[in-house]
């Protein structure tokens, strides 16, 4: 996946995404979790395009202004791709522009959403574990992951911390490792690769619901795709 590991490591994830969409329609790329001073957005776009176009995607369009967007505009895209960076920066941008409302409409309409790292966490039920900033109660995430919170870049060193964080909490953590994939619909759960873990009430369990790539189909056919990768090339 972009932003972590190599394109070879995440090739199956990209292939799975491309297989679920209309390749003749453009993908909308939103890089606004990233720091444009550190890595200009056009560089991230070039990186994403080099991967997706190689797999048959005809066009990748980038938006850096989310104000006054409409559902009709979004319907022109086969998928929306949110890359990684700062979870809170991305969430504030989406909320302050009211893009979250249009995004929900697109999802309910049947659109496909791809989230990576910070671009994935915003679809959980809570983001306070990603920042020390106070007073963010007005920036509630989109909560499309069955009321679970997402923990990115998980490895065994995070286990003790997650067990502690999950004590007494209503919503579980889904801990996502680098790479791996799962396909989730209302009728079945298909694990593509790797394992993920669910932390609830201070206990860890293997989770066969969510892994690094998650697709949740709505009744209208919408899908939410989530991928988490390690740091590296543009996220």
Can you walk through the features of this model?
The protein is globular. The N terminus and C terminus are likely disordered. The strands form three sheets. The chain has a six-stranded mixed β-sheet with strand order 2-1-3-4-12-11. Strands 5-6-9-10 form a four-stranded mixed β-sheet, with helices on one face. It has a two-stranded antiparallel sheet with strand order 7-8. The protein is α/β, with parallel strands linked by helices and 235 residues long. It is built from seven helices and twelve strands.
Topology:
Blueprint (H helix, E strand, L loop, with lengths): L10 H10 L6 E4 L10 H12 L7 E3 L8 H4 L4 E4 L4 H10 L2 H11 L2 E5 L1 H4 L27 E3 L7 H7 L7 E3 L5 E4 L4 E5 L2 E5 L2 E5 L6 E4 L5 E5 L8
């Amino acid at each position: 996946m972009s932003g972590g590991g190599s394109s070879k490591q995440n090739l199956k994830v990209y292939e799975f995404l491309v297989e679920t969409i209309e390749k003749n329609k453009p993908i909308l790329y939103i890089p606004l979790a990233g720091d444009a001073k550190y890595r200009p957005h056009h560089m991230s776009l070039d990186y994403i395009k080099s991967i997706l176009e190689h797999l048959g995607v005809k066009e990748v369009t980038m938006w850096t202004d989310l104000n006054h967007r409409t559902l009709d505009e979004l319907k022109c895209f086969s998928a929306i791709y949110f890359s990684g960076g700062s979870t809170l920066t991305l969430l504030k941008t989406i909320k302050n522009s009211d893009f979250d409302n249009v995004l929900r409409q697109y999802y309910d309409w049947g659109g496909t959403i791809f989230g990576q790292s910070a671009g994935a966490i915003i679809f959980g039920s809570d983001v306070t574990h990603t920042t020390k900033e106070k007073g963010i109660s007005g920036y509630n995430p989109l909560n499309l992951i069955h009321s679970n919170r997402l923990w990115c870049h998980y490895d065994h060193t995070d286990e003790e911390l997650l067990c502690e964080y999950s004590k007494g909490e209503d919503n579980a953590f889904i801990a996502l490792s680098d790479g791996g994939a799962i396909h989730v619909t209302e009728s079945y759960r298909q694990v593509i690769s790797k394992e993920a873990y669910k932390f609830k009430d201070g206990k860890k369990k293997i989770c066969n619901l969510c892994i690094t790539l998650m697709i949740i189909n709505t009744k209208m056919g919408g899908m939410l795709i989530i991928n988490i990768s390690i740091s590296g090339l543009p996220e």
